[in-house]
Amino acid sequence: TTEDQLKEIFGQVGNVTSIRLVYDRSTGKPQGYGFCEFEDPEMAASALRNLNGADIQGRKLRLDLADNDTHNSGPGGVGGPGGPGGGMGGGGGG
Predict the structure, then answer these.
(1) Rounded to two decimals, what is the model's pTM?
(2) Alpha-carbon distance 2 to 49, whole Å?
(3) Contacts of 75 (CB under 8 A, 6+ apart)
(4) What integer pLDDT is reported at residue 73 of this predicted model?
(5) Are the C-beta atoms of residues 76 and 66 closer than 8 Å to each other?
(6) Angle 60-61-67 from CA coordinates, rounded to 5°
(7) Which of 41, 39, 25, 30 is nearest to 87 (CA)?
(8) Could you tell me the CA-to-CA distances from 89 to 53, 55, 76, 83 in Å, in that order?
(9) What residues contact residue 70 under an 8 Å CB cut-off, 6+ apart?
(10) Predicted local distance difference test score (pLDDT) of residue 55
(11) Mean per-residue pLDDT, 9-30
């Protein structure tokens, strides 16, 4: 699953401001998770309610709300391991 495909999927529940899949630095292969940032926290919560557990290309999308810290000052996002074929924002690629 690509970042563009995930952006389209997550875009069904709200305005996506960014998607980032995480890749292994040495192999360049997807780690299986990523991050998806939405325009606001309500859209992130909607993604969590409506897309968590969805089947994407034969894999279950597993979402969780990301903790806000100094590196993530955006308004709302989801992320976590085990995404579709790896997200984000969300799920990562793989």
Answers:
(1) 0.69
(2) 22
(3) 17, 37, 38, 39, 40, 41
(4) 46
(5) no
(6) 145
(7) 30
(8) 13, 15, 11, 8
(9) none
(10) 93
(11) 95
Query: Token digits for 3?
Result: 């970042």
pLDDT, tens digit, 9 for 90 and up, residues 20-79:
999 999 999 999 899 999 999 999 999 999 999 999 989 899 999 887 654 444 555 565
> Which DSSP letter does residue 68 get?
P
At residue 93, the pLDDT reads 42
Provide the H-helix boundaries in the chain: 3-10, 41-51
CA-to-CA separations, 58 to 55, 61, 65, 86, 91, in angstroms, rounded: 6, 10, 23, 11, 13
Q: Which residues, in sequence order, are bridge partners of residue 39? A: none
